[in-house]
Amino acid sequence: MSLQPYQTGCGKPWRLNSAREGVCYIGIAFKLGEAKSDSACCAAQMFLDTGDGIVFLGDDKPIYSPLKRQFTLTSNASEKLLKGILDTYKTLDGRPLKEIFIHCRSEINEEQWEGYQKACPENVKLVGVRVRPQRDGPRLYRIGTRPVLRGTFWKLNEKSGYLYCSGFKSRIAAYDGWETPVPLKIDVQYGDAPIELVARDILGLTKLNYNACRLGESEPVTIKFSNAVGEILISNPTVTDHRPNFKFYI
After folding, report:
1. pLDDT mean over 32-53
2. Is residue 129 part of a domain?
3. Which residue range is the domain that position 54 belongs to?
4. Is residue 136 a part of any domain in this protein?
5. Cβ atoms within 10 Å, residue 197
6. Which of 8, 11, 37, 197 has its CA at a distance of 20 to 30 angstroms from the CA of residue 72?
7. Which residue has better confidence, 179 or 199?
8. Helix pair angle (110-119, 75-92), 10° resolution
9. What are the helix (H) ranges across the chain?
10. pLDDT tens-digit map of 122-151
11. Partners of 141 in the beta sheet?
């Protein structure tokens, strides 16, 4: 199936006109610095229906597993992280939330999810999604010389699927990439949300890079920019007063 890409709305050029009010998307990225044992950090970003972003740095260092080559958080650390993000949101915006989607490249384990649930306000839906490029995933081609259409979604089951955020763009009648499009593997690990809706939201979040003149990125801003912001946050550990507004990091 092919998902319809979100269009930007009136007013702010980076606001999506199909964004749902009361729904926020939080991208969590872990970063390991040069001094690997003591410079790991957890950077998080919240994106709202307005298109604006909030940046937050976790106080507790993530746990890195060399065997699995991925990070995780303890229950207390994940609870503290989400609570800090929501407290910052209340200060800057404060509108009631209905749904919270957590995007993470690393697998979310049960202990980590338990902490997120404790920090989640009552009557707010919480969904945990793993999003990462799958370079060994299926490489689709259309008949002819053009690659797969951007926005193509291959549903595997009710919780998983492949989304092609790169590919042939009908608006410019070309593919502006260098290699065969790499799909994103999307897995709804916790919570309840239709996989098609999750994929459509992720496709919309690829259009929120308002610092570049592109029709869309290959990854959602929640994943791609959390990683970049994490690199900024650990580059100078002497800075303690980190600005929460996303515009300071673009």
Report:
1. 67
2. yes
3. 23-235
4. yes
5. 14
6. 197
7. 199
8. 30
9. 75-92, 110-119, 195-205, 221-235
10. 999 999 999 999 888 777 766 666 788 899
11. 147
Q: Higher model confidence: residue 53 or residue 220?
A: 220
Residues 6+ apart with CB under 8 A from 110: none
Residue tagged 């979604």 (tokens): 153
Pairing outcome for strands 99-104 and 23-31: parallel
**Residues β-bridged to residue 184:** 133, 163
Among all chains, which residue has been given the structure tokens 């319809």? 4
Residue 240 is assigned to a structural domain of this protein: no
Which pairs with CB-CB distance under 8 Å and at least 24 residues apart come from 157-162? 157/195, 158/194, 158/195, 159/187, 159/188, 159/189, 159/195, 160/185, 160/186, 160/187, 160/188, 160/195, 161/186, 161/195, 161/199, 162/134, 162/137, 162/138, 162/186
CATH of the domain at 230: 3.30.420.10
For 151, residues 6+ apart whose C-beta sits below 8 A from its C-beta are 2, 3, 4, 5, 164, 165, 167, 203
Helix H or strand E segment including 244: none
Instruction: Give residue-wise pLDDT tens across range 82-111.
Output: 998 898 888 877 788 999 999 998 889 999
